[in-house]
Specification:
Layout (H helix, E strand, L loop, with lengths): L6 E2 L5 H8 L3 H7 L1 E5 L1 H8 L5 E6 L1 H6 L1 H9 L3 E5 L1 H7 L8 E6 L5 H6 L4 E5 L5 H14 L3 E5 L8 H7 L8 E5 L1 H10 L3 E5 L5 E2 H7 L6 E5 L8 H6 L2 E4 L11 H19 L9
Parallel strand pairs: 1-4, 3-4, 6-7, 6-11, 7-8, 9-11, 9-12, 10-12
Antiparallel strand pairs: 2-5, 3-5
Helix pairs in contact: 8-9, 8-13
């Protein structure tokens, strides 16, 4: 693959400079492009039509991940062999893995998500930490959710840390961004989805809801900021405010753990209602 291909040896190359600027939100928004780093993210980006635009890859990584690089090129991405220094200059990680992709924005209009009549949705309201946002997106993907919604008060979906934390799940399911929380709740409810706010101070217990059989229908979980949870006005929008029970002595659960518990509880209940025994139903 490397034979005869140019090697980008200068960080002052216009293409390298353009890619490096995508580490900043204002440039991402202006260009509608973002960075995907590492083999998993690049592989998943390359599997989506018209998503992976460019790939910067070291010689060593090109040999190690020849299948990923070949698929990127076959998919129409412009592949650049680059020195380790150049890739490190573009990368936002401390220890780059030798591949950095430039991708087109892939968020989905909220109206399109509603038209799909989703049965399980994660809504991130007031979530400011990109690592948390990406991890919740990964949990939603793993639990079989059909969509994720980031409200206008939440972190940038394309923040490099959020993209990394999603571990490729960003490319697996529709994600709407910048949706006002009230619009999100009203729209989902209008699509026949029950809206539950996850909050440690909720007046309903998740275990009780499961025992009562109320979790089998289409459900959207609203998750808030890890430090201060959901504002009262957001909780008031939901059909119910549900807490994850703490059976031991832990003070609380972090956002991603709570999201995983809630999403898997809904997934299991929905699959049971459909005649499957478990969330992985065989």
């Amino acid at each position: 693959m490397a034979a005869g291909a140019p090697e980008l040896i200068s960080s002052r190359s216009p293409r390298v400079s353009a890619a490096r600027r995508l580490g900043r939100r204002n440039f991402r928004g202006k260009e509608r492009l973002f960075l995907a780093e590492g083999p998993q993210a690049v592989r998943e980006a390359g599997a989506q039509p018209d998503t992976l635009v460019e790939l910067f890859v070291t010689v060593e990584a090109a040999e190690r991940y020849a299948d990923i690089v070949g698929a990127a090129r076959d998919g129409g991405a412009r592949v650049h062999l680059a020195s380790e220094e150049v890739v490190a200059d573009i990368s936002t990680t401390v220890t780059p893995q030798g591949l950095v992709g430039v991708c087109r924005f892939i968020d989905t209009p909220f109206a399109e998500i509603l038209r799909g009549r989703p049965r399980l949705v994660a809504v991130l309201a007031h979530v400011r930490d990109p690592g948390n946002a990406g991890t919740v997106l990964r949990c939603a993907d793993a639990a079989g959710a059909e969509a994720v919604v980031l409200t206008d008060a939440s972190v940038d979906l394309y923040n490099p840390k959020a993209v990394r934390a999603s571990v490729g799940s960003l490319f697996h399911l529709p994600v709407a961004v910048g949706v006002p929380v009230e619009e999100a709740v009203v729209g989902l409810r209008g699509a026949g989805v029950r809206v539950l706010a996850a909050d440690g101070a909720g007046d309903r217990d998740l275990d009780d809801e499961l025992d009562k059989g109320t979790m089998g229908g289409p459900t959207a979980w609203v998750f808030g900021n890890e430090a201060w949870g959901l504002p009262e006005e957001t909780r008031a929008l939901a059909d119910a405010v549900v807490r994850v029970p703490i059976h031991g002595r832990a003070e609380s659960l972090n956002l991603a753990t709570a999201a995983a518990v809630c999403l898997y509880a809904s997934a299991r209940a929905q699959r049971a209602a459909a005649g499957c025994r478990t969330v992985t139903g065989t």
